[in-house]
Amino acid sequence: MRLEHAALRALLPHRYPMLLLDRVEDVTPGESLTGVKAVSGCEPCYRGIAEGQPADRYAYPASLLIESFGQGAAVLWLLSRRAGTAGLPMFTAARDVALLRPVHPGDVIRHRVRLEQVVDGAAFASGSSWVGERRVAEFDSMMAVVRAVDAIVEPRDEREEPR
Amino acid sequence: MSERDKHLEQLREIVAEVLEMEPEEVADTADFVEEYEADSLRAIEILARIEKTYKVEIPQAELNEMRSLKAVHEVVARYAGWQD
Question: pLDDT-based confidence at A147, cuts 50/70/90?
Fold first, then answer.
């Protein structure tokens, strides 16, 4: 099963600038998911960097890479639950994460996520992130718990878009 | 090493890993919450690792009981059918 961006927006509460997943290429509920995040030089994380900085100043931040993988795990978990189950996943812990190579603007990250275990409202995922044939990160254990939707999402008034 | 000791040492390692301590720092009867500042998320993580390691299912209601290594051992022994 493939999910385009609109379908991800319907599943995840995240929005700009924290919606860090562009597309899901393949998902097998209860098992695994391949998610895509394209990094561009327009990302807000590159705003305000002084001119003339070296290349490594534009490495994609580890925190955002981990969050992006976590959003893939969240989609996988959401699609793996029984229909009608309430609540949203909230990322709580990452264990044994290895960042192997920096990611730069122009790179397309593929997250390969496996759902390891679901225990009493908590889910555990593992996997790795790739740019082409190169592995850029490994995730031994990512944990999320389910929280009531109204505990996470502020009611939004669509007419008042921030400028 | 008796079966009971073996199980206790395995559980001590699981608990130590989740609480980010050395196994020898985890005392048998110390309260995870009071003495090691564990919270409910750590408790679920311990439970999840135990379920995965021993392929047992432990009801969430038992979480409240599992507050020390000794108590964890007792609960797991009950559900895993250990004769410790």
Answer: confident
A153: pLDDT strictly greater than 80: no
Amino acid at B34: E
**Residue contact B45–A143, C-beta within 8 A:** yes
Q: Which chain A residues in 79-98 lie under 8 Å from chain B, judged by CB atoms?
A: 92-93
ipTM: 0.81
A122 lies within 8 A of chain B by CB: yes
For residue B77, the surrounding DSSP H or E stretch is helix B69-80
What does the pLDDT look like over A99-118, one tens digit per residue? 999 999 999 999 999 999 99
Tell which residue, A71, A78, A93, has the closest CA to residue A142: A93
Write down the pLDDT at residue A157.
61
Question: Taking the domain B3-80, which CATH number applies?
Answer: 1.10.1200.10
Domain spanning A5-47+55-152, CATH class: alpha beta
Confidence (pLDDT) at A123: 95
What are the chain B neighbours of A116 within 8 Å (beta carbons)? 52
Distance CA B38, CA B36 (A): 6
Average pLDDT rounded to a whole number, residues A90-98: 94
Q: Which residues face A113 on adjacent strands?
A: A33, A127
Domain boundaries, given as residue ranges, for chain A: 5-47+55-152
Q: Residue B51 and residue A124: Cβ atoms within 8 Å?
A: no
Q: How many angstroms separate the CA of residue A70 from the nearest CA in chain B? A: 17
Structure token digits, residue A119: 């225990």
Measured between CA atoms, how close is B60 to chain A, in angstroms? 6
* Chain A environment of B41 (Cβ under 8 Å): 92-93, 122, 143, 145
Cα A140 from Cα A161, distance rounded (Å): 38
pLDDT for A163? 56
